[in-house]
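Sanity check. The docking grid for adenosine-5'-diphosphate depends on where the pocket ends up, so I'm generating a full predicted complex first rather than guessing from homology. Inputs follow.
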Amino acid sequence: MTSRIQKLTPLVANQIAAGEVIERPSSIIKELLENSLDAGATKIEFDIEQGGMRLIRVRDSGSGIHPDDLVLALSRHATSKIQNMDDLEKIMTLGFRGEALASIASVSRLTLSSAVESQSGWQVSVHGNEQSAQLEPAAHPQGTTVEVRDLFFNTPARRKFLRTEKTEFDHIDEVIKRVALCHFHVNFTVKHNEKLIRQYRAATSEAEKIQRLSDACGVPFADNALKIEAQATGLRLWGWIASPTFSRSQPDLQYFYVNGRTVKDKVVSHAVRHAYHDVMYQDRHPAFVLFLEIDPSQVDVNVHPAKHEVRFRESRLVHDFICRSLQEVLADIRPGQSVPPTAISATQSERQQPIEPVREYTRGPTSQKPSGNYHVTPRQTPLPLKMQEQMVVYNQLHTEQEVPKEIACELGYALAQLQGIYILAENTNGLVLVDMHAAHERVLYEQLKKSFQDQALISQPLLVPLTMQLSEREVNCVEQYANVFESLGLKITRMSQDSIAIREVPELLREGNIDPLIRDMIADLIEHEQSVRLDERIHHILGTMACHSAVRSQRKLTVPEMNALLRAMEKTDHSGQCNHGRPTWMQLSMQELDKLFLRGR
Ligand code: ADP
Ligand code: MG
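Predicted complex below; grid placement will be based on this.
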């Protein structure tokens, strides 16, 4: 039996459209928020009840809607923002589809009140069906209020998909945060069940912006944020990225905006990931708040009804610009910068809760503050004689000799090696602790990268070629990637079905252990055979090389060797972190040391 064709009623058509954009209360917040911003509001207030399921009220101080347009605003494909496809080419407003109010009205009880400059207010209410809209006078200051009650009251199937009040409010909170982060000049107030939950005050100065950053993303993020500002023809990127030691287990602190529109985009996320790949573990995620400004004709925003995605005309260009800009900032993290690599790495659940950066070395007596009339008087044990003698010698040395000029260097002058793991050094601020292996690994890695780029990896023939037994698959891999190995200074030939001979190795690796390195490289190449980018792989391999040839712990270093490492670190990009994003050194200032010993109280 064939059924006959009928035209859908506007209500059903709107409900179907609503299915695309109105998934939950937070989707309504997003649409209403965008309308308020498009209307130029500088003050937006949210009243939410029961996670938005019972009530969402958004009140703004924008331009308002003319009374004659109020009913029209609720019908589908009605918009004041574009008239034709040419307008879409240069779109600067957040909305343009003319669908939101109609969609929301079709699945809730909606009241729209508004007043334009120096005129009295009007309002219109609809309950599911726009045909029933009634216009009546209402007291309202300039601006617009949209009240949405009983979401999905007439579409019970959709209502079932709503989660708990708390979950729905969390979504709303996130949507508002996302927008607040990019509209610094707007004042936002958020109430849930009549309780004030958030207040983002309008921010113009840099300090106020940082305040908003920490209100929205937490104090640790703001403390670890590096400012970025870069420009290229037709492109501008600015904002904040977290230093690599502040990495996240989830990609939950990543905010990217294109021309003021929040965007999740593959090109962008790849560019950011690539910029960090050198300084962060594979399974960790960077944190950032970034704004890209680009000629609107270079980007298509009409890819998805909810407008989460964009398409760049020149995606390669945008990708490389973002990547390069971030890399420059990351490479600049040097000893002595404002963001110390010692700041704690934030992991899971510190969202919103401001946490005081805890330094791991504040153990011991400092935690027990002397209180009341109880006084701590540390008993001085006399130094053993031998040590006293040494002290005298040390003091003489230091008065007779000039203070080593290295003390004035950022990482100071090496004093000693601790347990074969740490270098202790003295600089003008106090004590410097260096993780010897991690630091050396980074220095070598940067050297390897540089030599690789300059095609200057010098290789050395081995007097006796080194033979290795491998699986057939592994040997095939070596053959397949012979040019990759060669570009890394490794000359390898096949000996048999399942063995290879290594004939030349890079000079840097002469002392290193070749066998495990080759095995790691092969495993790496096999696993990422279809890898997107060979240079990312090669960087990984160079990292493995660096790790295999960096000084192992327990190796005794002489003072000149230690100083050489400190000097090399000062000259090296990214030297604040090892290749995996762990800190390579930290500073204990004299004040911090004094605190440990309760001096000066
Ligand atoms: P769009 O935003 O895509 O144009 P909407 O359905 O969201 O479509 O809104 C329809 C129209 O109603 C808008 O084009 C705008 O003219 C008007 N409007 C909606 N909300 C507001 C507001 N808060 N302030 C002023 N005008 C508004
Ligand atoms: Mg809109």
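Relevant for the grid: The chain has three domains: 10-200, 206-331, 382-601.
Also worth noting: The CA atoms of residues 506 and 580 lie 23 Å apart.
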